[in-house]
Design a protein that fits this description.
The chain is α/β, with parallel strands linked by helices. It is 41% helix and 14% strand. Helix 2 crosses helix 4, helix 5 packs across helix 6 and helix 8 runs parallel beside helix 9.
Length: 273
Amino acid sequence: MYVDKPARVRAQVTAPGLRAMKARGERIVALTAYDYSFACLVEAAGVDFVLVGDSLGMVVQGRPTTLPVTVDDMVYHCAAVARGLQRALLVADLPFLSDVDAATAVRNGGRLLAEGGARMVKIEGAGHRLAAIEAMVGHGIPVCAHLGLTPQSVHALGGYRTQGRDEAAARAILEQAHAVERAGASALVLECVPDALAATISAELAIPTIGIGSGPGCDGQVLVSYDMLGITPGPRPSFSHDFLADGGSIAAAIKAYADAVRAGSFPPARDPA
C-alpha cells in the first residue's frame, strides 16, 4: 500500500535561533499579526518573527494610541495568532503599565506564554525595565527589548518622532542597547533611530536587532502588517511601503516583503539627517 510521506516541517524559529541567524548573516523577517487568518498567511510566506503588537489598539481597535490595550487584549489576540503558526517565533507585547515592576512583568509575561501561546515577550524601554528583563529571563521567559521611539511613552516623548538625533541622545540609546543585552534580552527592536546609530548598535551587539524606520543596517526588519498592505486609515509611516500595490494579493505582498528584506532591498538607505 502506498502511503504519502508527511510534508517536511521546517524547524521552529527560537530565541537562540535568532542569534544564530545573525551569526550566519541571515536577515530576519518580522511582521505583525493580530488574528488566525493573517497568521496563516505570514506563516505560509516564511516570516521568521511574528509580533502581536499593542499596535492592535490603533489598527484593530481604532484607538489614538497603544495605551488603552490591556493584557487580556494581548492574550486574546496572541492565542488567535498562535493557532495559525508552526515555524515562526510568536512574540507578544507587554502593554502599557504591565511591567511596572519585575514581579508584575513576570506575571504578565507568563500569561502571554501560558495563555496566549507566545514564545517571547517584548518590553519597551530600559531603566527599571532592566530588572524586569532579568526577572523574566530568570523565570524562563525569553525577552525582546525595544528602544528608540517607544510608543507607550508617546506623551513623554512629545509625539511619534525619530529618537537619538543628537550626540547625547544617540549615546544614551547605545548605552541602553548594551544594558538590555546584559540583562538577558534575546533580541532588540530599534524603532525610528538614525540609520547610522542603528547600524552601530547592530554591529556592537551579539543579539539581533530588528529595525522599524531605522534603516537597512539592522539584522532584520519589522513592519505593522496593515501599513505594509496600505490599509491603515489615514497617513502611514514614511518608512513603510505598500507591498499590496506591488503584489496584487495579500499573500503575494507578504512574500514580496519577505523577499525584499532578505535581499536587502528593503528598507532603502536614507540620507543622513
